[in-house]
Amino acid sequence: MRTLEGALEPGPEESCAAGTGGGSGAVGRAGGPSGDGADGETAVIARVRAGDVEAYAQLVRAHTGVALRAAVAFGAGADAEDVVQAAFFKAYRALGRFRDGAPFRPWLLRIVMNETRNTVRSAGRARAVAGREACYRGADPVIPDAADPAAVALAQERRTLLAAALDELSEEQRQVVTCRYLLEMGEAETAQTLGWPRGTVKSRLNRALKKLERRLGGQLGPDRDGRISGESGEKR
Predict the structure, then answer these.
(1) Most buried one in 29, 97, 168, 215, CB count within 10 A?
(2) What would the pLDDT profile of 102-157 be if each residue is shown by its tens digit?
(3) Rounded to two decimals, what is the model's pTM?
């Protein structure tokens, strides 16, 4: 049975090429630099504040992958690398205001999101739409020789429909869907990234999913039963 939530979860072959570019591994599940977790990351940040430039390079290497994927998903398109570079620079300059013990990733991704918004506004909405569609389609996808051409075409069509449907959401709704499903963040991390209370994350996600469901309807596939999976707003 294909549900809306299932359609929003990209498989490995559907992820953007940018998401694999030097970074934190599985988006949404990476720990701190070198996989040390929160404690190790806190120590690295302390070293950066003490003037250790190489320590910041560790943070950059650990989070570049998810930052690039976030920039593309939020609409940066071809400007994603420039957005991420600017975001890391701004994060470095603002690290003195970073709260001790807080997770670095949602703080960084909030900077990426704001930087992307500024870039999109200056470049125009058309580029943002093209960037999101490129993310869902994937860059130079590897299609197994045994793949059914009809199934491949259907999957691509569904991603295109989803990209168009997402563009009809409000900016806040696109942001919460991007964080929860495209970047595979948990509810708490989404709230930290967007700077919203968790209740706001739930309510906006619910409204976004219902709007997508109405917009897409039976276009997700013949095996749907019209039910929105995860309607409570909880993905996991």
Answers:
(1) 215
(2) 999 999 999 999 999 988 877 655 555 555 656 555 544 444 555 566 665 666 67
(3) 0.64
